[in-house]
Amino acid sequence: MITSIRVPNFMNIQYEFRTIEDILELEFTKMLEANVRFRKCKRCGKYFIMKGNYDTNYCDRVADGETRNCQELSAAENYKAKIAGDKANPGRPL
User: What is the reported pTM?
Assistant: First the structure.
């Protein structure tokens, strides 16, 4: 399997792959070279690419059987935990 990547018109880089692992290794290396930031989601445990310049611990992937993404679900879970620990107003509705 051979692929070509054209950068500017004056450069032509060719890679030769023998396995899928070789392709994935090249892709991972290129991500590191481009300083692509990625992190493991603290809710679902899957890796995701961080978008923009904000720091987040949760992905925007919708899990199987869910209607909301990990960010929304974790925000709701954290809110419920915070309310449950609120001694000043224990009967506060959600």
Answer: 0.62
Q: What is the pLDDT of residues 11-36, one digit of tens each?
A: 678 888 999 999 999 999 999 999 99
CA distance 30 to 75: 33
Q: Return the structure tokens found at 5.
A: 């990547």
β-partners of residue 69 are 62
Distances (CA, A) of 25 to 17, 21, 29, 31: 10, 6, 6, 10
Report strand pairing: 47-49 vs 38-40: antiparallel
Listed residue (18, 13, 23, 22) closest to 1, CA to CA:
18
